[in-house]
Predict the 3D structure of the following.
Amino acid sequence: MKIDDKLLAKLEKLSMIKVENREEMIADLNQIVEFVEILQEVNTDNVEATFNVLNASTPMRDDTPVNNDAIKTILDHAPKSEGNYFIVPKIIEG
């Protein structure tokens, strides 16, 4: 996959983020894609899936509810919201 100006424009629209230095971003994204393509070549057929590489268990804690303003804080920073929901543009193209 090759990242070009047309694909970057589509990604900008979907993410609602304006890219300032387009050429640098295209180069960075292409490096990321090349790295992922290299990883896809690794043969993992006989490798058992693992959840944790340290062979340690996850420490448990009491599930105690805490009142905080996290939802309000997050929604206050959203470009658009209504009630307790984000308002986002339609992104499914058909």
